[in-house]
Structures are given as structure tokens and as C-alpha cells.
Amino acid sequence: MFTGIIEEKGLISRVLPAGSSQELWIRGEKIFDDLKLGDSVAVNGVCLTVAAIKRDQWMADVMPESLRRSSLYKLQAGDFVNLERAMKADGRFGGHLVSGHIDGVGKITDIKREDNAVIFDICADQKIVSYMIEKGSIAIDGISLTISFVSDQAFGFSVIPHTLKETVLGDKKVGDSVNLENDQIGKYVKKFVDGISKKATSSLTMEFLKQAGF
């Protein structure tokens, strides 16, 4: 489990194809304080497992499903990525509940400034956007952010200069892809409500209406 508070930007040192999967080698500094084999690290919001460590580099095996669901397949040596270690039980909860299980990918359609804020507009599949609400939480490339507006297939958020400097958002441009993870609580609530709605609809039959006097 993660919180969406990025610890540092890591550098992709090598990308090694392995059939339909791949090995990602990543350089870092801060996360090496206590990094060990088997640890979970969110890379641009995708939960990956540390499979090897060599001095200032570590390696993660990326499954085909992760490559299909996220933008990790676009990474090349020299690219920067957001890194966050899994939250400790006694850690400070700074963002929101982030699982590292990406719902899909969105595309940046506009970037504009408003005083000290930079506003990003994102287009995404309607199925993903349907879980969003204005002022709700969203993880963008693993960063915990607040949604400023939502439409049928688009949404927006704004970031402060510190976030731009400390994450890969500062390098993004219009047309770039970002990993999206909806708020977990929102997903559970929507599934629960949809289930109640389907059950109520299925019980409304002609026989029921006749018995009710219609």
C-alpha cells in the first residue's frame, strides 16, 4: 500500500525485453536507505517488486499485464520515474490510499498556468472517468492529487511548483501519457451501488407490477 507522496525521481538505466515482459533497472538514492529484495516500490504508480539490487540500482520484473495496463512499456534508458516505497505501518499518511494497481492510461490534452499553479487536462476512457468526482482523489503516475473538474471522458487537476519539481510531472507535455489509479473507496462504493441498482431493476417484472395493481 502507498500514499501517493513521491520520495524521489529515479533514473531508468536499462530496459531489457524478456518475451512479452521486461526487466527495468532503476537508479535511485533516497529509497536505498532500507531497500531489500522482495520490497514493493511504486514506479510511476505501478507496484513492482524488487528482484535484484546492485549498488545504486535495483531491478523489477514487469509482467505483460502491467505493460498492457500502464505506460511503463514506453520507458527508455535515461527516462525519469516517480518512486515511492510501500508505506510503513507507523508511517505518516500524507496522501490517500494508493494500491499501485493501475486502472488505465490517460493522455494530457492541455497544460496551462494560473498564478503559482499549473493545471493539467486529461482525457481518459469513460469507464475510468466514471469513478471520479470533483474534489476527489486520483493517483497520477503515483502522485496523490485532487480532481478539479470532471466531464464524460476528461478531468483536470492542478499542481504546485514543488510537485512539478519533485516529480516527473514537470517534464510532461501535451500528448504524453500518464498512469491513472482511481480512489479505492470510490471504486468499492460504486460497485456496491451498481449492485443494488441491478438487483432492484431485476425485481421489477410484469408479474410484480400486476400484483401491485398496475
The poorly predicted ranges are none
Find the CATH topology of the largest domain. Elongation Factor Tu (Ef-tu), domain 3
What is the general shape?
globular
Examine the secondary-structure arrangement and name the CATH architecture of the largest domain: Beta Barrel
Count of DSSP-assigned helices: 5
Tell me the name of the CATH class of the largest domain: Mainly Beta
The main sheet comes to:
6 strands, antiparallel, barrel
Mean pLDDT: 91
What's the helix-strand series? EEEEEHEEEHEEEHEHH
Helix proportion: 10-25%
Helix-and-strand structural type? alpha+beta
Question: What is the strand content?
Answer: 35-45%
* Tally of distinct domains: 2
Rounded to an integer in angstroms, the radius of gyration calculated over CA atoms is 20 Å
End-to-end separation in angstroms reads: 52 Å
Strand order of the largest sheet: 1-2-5-4-3-6
Overall description:
By secondary structure, this protein is an alpha+beta fold. The chain folds into two domains: 8-85, Elongation Factor Tu (Ef-tu), domain 3 (Beta Barrel), CATH 2.40.30; 104-199, Beta Barrel (Elongation Factor Tu (Ef-tu), domain 3), CATH 2.40.30.20. It has five helices and twelve strands. The protein has helices spanning 64-69, 126-129, 161-166, 184-202, 206-211, and strands at 8-18, 21-27, 40-43, 46-54, 57-62, 80-85, 104-114, 117-123, 137-140, 143-150, 154-159, 177-182. The strands form two sheets. A six-stranded antiparallel β-barrel has the order 1-2-5-4-3-6. A six-stranded antiparallel β-barrel has the order 7-8-11-10-9-12. Strand 7 (104-114) and strand 8 (117-123) form a beta hairpin. The longest helix has 19 residues, at 184-202. The chain is globular.
